[in-house]
Amino acid sequence: MSDFTLFVCTFNSERTLDRCLFSLRRSSPDSKLVVVDHSSSDATGAICERYGAEVHVENVGLGRARQICFELCTSKYLVFIDSDVEIVEYRFFERAAHVLDSPEMGAVVGMAVGHRLAYGLPASLLVLRNSDFKGIRIPDYIDARETYFIQGRLDERHLKTAYLADAMVHRSQYRGMKPEWEGANTRLASGVHIRQLAFALKVIILMSLNSRSARNVAYVPLFYLKFLRGFVNPMTFHRLERGSEGED
Predict the structure, then answer these.
(1) pLDDT by residue (tens digit) across 127-157?
(2) For 29-57, how does the pLDDT look when each residue is reduced to its tens digit (9 = 90+)?
(3) Euclidean distance between CA atoms 231 and 237, whole angstroms
(4) Residue 78 and residue 128 in contact, taking contact as beta carbons nearer than 8 Å
(5) % of the chain at pLDDT higher than 70
(6) Domain residue spans in the chain?
(7) Residue 124 contacts by C-beta under 8 Å, 6 or more apart in sequence?
(8) Where are the alpha helices (DSSP H) in 10-74?
(9) pTM
(10) How would DSSP label each residue in 59-127?
(11) Burial tier of 214 (Cβ tally within 10 Å: 0-12, 13-18, 19+)
(12) Sheet holding 125-129, edge to edge
């Protein structure tokens, strides 16, 4: 699996990082493993050392972290994995490479176990062909929705996205101001576009339906209102406050 470089962008993720990196080493033991760390103050560094990961530190935000990944990658394929993701389909990378052998395909998304409704371009588990993204620039002021710029490159090249079901488990814990954070960064990335607001509502609905939770579905209107709050006030909410526990 030396055709892959595995990039994990993280901050204070000790609670989930070990399981994440273990699953990566088991799924693709020969791949280069790179962690881009947002100056963590917990045991992130020690965990990375245990798995032989190459560590790069930044103190700007997720936009800068993703840009560092693009600049560091020299392999055929670039993989983004969130630090709260555990890969459970250990042939995922093999299958993703097979999909990207087709010149019309440009991205492969690994879906969470049990999720059946595909949407957008989530970077929690995302495989890209490195050559398609030479020269891409993700602004430093972006701290979420960095995939807007990745999707833009795919659209420019008329490349499609494939979704592989039951690939991973996602254990996100940063929920407090996440709707506002997503809304603020959508505004900063794309400006004021009705299309982006409609797309965001679609994603929120599909996410809720994937959870198969009546409570989450009922929460959709409130989530969207919070999203709009962030969209209207981007400079107030564009950075997500993270504690010393949890994961990106």
Answers:
(1) 999 999 999 999 999 999 999 999 999 999 9
(2) 999 999 999 999 999 999 999 999 999 99
(3) 9
(4) yes
(5) 94
(6) 4-170, 178-237
(7) 80, 81, 82, 84, 85, 110, 112, 168, 170
(8) 14-27, 44-50, 62-72
(9) 0.93
(10) SS-HHHHHHHHHHH--SSEEEEEETTEEE--TTHHHHHHHHHTSTTEEEEEEEETT-----S--SSEEE
(11) exposed
(12) 54-57, 32-37, 4-10, 77-82, 125-129, 105-112, 160-170, 85-87
Angle at 210 between CA 208 and CA 213, to 5 degrees: 60
Query: Which residues have a Cβ under 8 Å from the Cβ of 67 and sit 6 or more positions away?
Result: 137, 138, 140
Q: What totals of helices (H) and strands (E) does the chain contain, helices first? A: 10, 8
pLDDT, one tens digit per residue, over 62-77 is 999 999 999 999 999 9
Cα angle 56, 61, 66 (rounded to 5 degrees) comes to 60
Phi, psi of 237 (to 5 degrees): -120, 10
Label the pairing between strands 77-82 and 4-10.
parallel
CB atoms within 10 A of CB 235: 10
Name the residue with tokens 């993700």: 138
Separation of alpha carbons 106 and 155, rounded Å: 10
Token readout for 211 is 């959870």
- How far apart are alpha carbons 167 and 12 in whole angstroms? 24
Query: How would CATH label the architecture of 4-170?
Result: Alpha-Beta Complex (3.90)
